[in-house]
């Protein structure tokens, strides 16, 4: 049940990482290499940089999963930053290979001019082409024969994610220096804000000659990078150490390609959460009380059906409680008088992955429901149709339309297609990522949906054909954007669950 977004967000994160925490012993240098005076002041422009290329090995939970490479080339008065990465991940014994290539045109000071990127996954391509023109930045996103243009207002300088690791060297390696700038992140399809703080590493030079540490506040997370005296990133870690890379030579970075057989399974080896107290017939569970440990309680959502209880101690790393109560559709149908005051516009729109306005999506939805059906009846029909007609197979898809055409996909595919169908009927709907209990197995990462019906949110599972979703569905985040899925990756391999109480 692992969602495609785990792999996609992992890929997006790896694209902006260029080195990470120590996985094996490194020789510490007894004497530091001289730091170029220009590095302290900042190289200012790319033509003065003492390095133009580097290779990195990629790791997830200390398992090598891929490599990345970048090089900087002059292009007239400007520069091209060319990068590529390849990642292989195994989930439920199926190995996915993801390849990303980018060409970014920047000015000598790293400000963005234009870019083009290609992500290839499971034989499908997602292309992006973007350019800044005056006070706006536009991006054409093409997938499966369709192109959608998105525009973003720009105030001040805009950068690309490839500039994050280069910025400290360009602006200067000064202890206590802080830098702030906006970047366009192709992996998340949006403009985000980055804050950097440079500090001198304590003691002798660390692994790979690391002499500087940079704390990046980015995408609601902190990413730590270590740089050598020249300003080249040599180690970096994100997602609290789960997502890591390190500087390597080309042969070492690509060595994993020769490995025969799949690596560790993202689901069976990393993500599966076993419990001592099993839950028989989880699909009938209407109330669940558990204790969670090993993660920050802030990673678990608290909403209309789910309550998180902590000790109240600030910064305490202690077990915390979670209670989940499944909604009652009959009560939802009478809930108009207590309608939530909430902006639902973002849960009605058509996007590159949720194409709710596409003629094929609209036509299919109109075949399933009748215009005179009440909202709740429409939800019921759309959930049941999706569960019955979309085969549950480990097949990744970029969009809801591709799921409809293929007639198969994993849980994320079911959730995306159902969301598109529901939005086409003007029913506000959002994709949800979390955990669900599977009998005789344990908790697995899963995706379902929530629709705003008669004034309140109703959880539904178009993979398991549940309306409402049973109480073993523990919500982590909602939304199709990558930033909402970051919480999931922070949990993989760390969370523990103790089942305290449940009933039907």
Can you walk through the features of this model?
The radius of gyration is 24 Å and the shape is globular. It has 2 domains: 4-23 and 31-258, no CATH class; 272-503, C8orf32 fold (Roll). The strands form 4 sheets. The chain has a 15-stranded mixed β-sheet with strand order 8-7-6-5-4-3-2-1-15-14-13-12-11-10-9. A 4-stranded antiparallel β-sheet has the order 17-18-16-25, with no helix packed on it. A 4-stranded antiparallel β-sheet has the order 23-22-21-24. Residues 1-31 and 335-340 have low confidence and may be disordered. Helices cover 18% and strands 38% of the residues. It contains 11 helices and 25 strands. The protein has helices at residues 4-16, 37-41, 167-171, 250-254, 266-271, 329-333, 359-368, 375-389, 400-406, 411-424, 486-491, and strands spanning 53-60, 63-75, 78-91, 94-106, 112-121, 124-133, 136-143, 146-153, 158-160, 178-185, 190-200, 212-218, 221-227, 233-238, 243-248, 287-293, 306-309, 320-325, 391-392, 408-409, 429-438, 442-453, 456-460, 474-478, 496-503. With 504 residues, it is an alpha+beta fold. It starts with a helix and ends with a strand.
